[in-house]
Predict the 3D structure of the following.
Amino acid sequence: MEALAAGLPVMVGPFHRNNREALFYQKKNYSSGMVVQVVHSSADVAVLLQRMKKQQDQIPHIKEEIRAEIGKNRHSTQRVLSAIEKVLSEC
């Protein structure tokens, strides 16, 4: 998922059910299309690479969309710790 954090589309194999981020972002649909694509064969990879090549001029926009979505989770650890602290202070 490092590529996703860099703002790039990601391809995953069919056995990705243990990857929470892949599952989450696979369901998300952006103006540029799906961010996480599942591939089942080398033919699927070739098709996706051709599609990406055609969308090359949209890469800056795609990166911004992905980074904006990932940015929503920024500082989540601090938010969780603050919520726990609040609950503990009320006890």
About this structure: Strands lie at 10-12, 29-30, 33-34, 36-38. The radius of gyration is 17 Å. The longest strand covers residues 10-12. The longest helix spans residues 76-90.
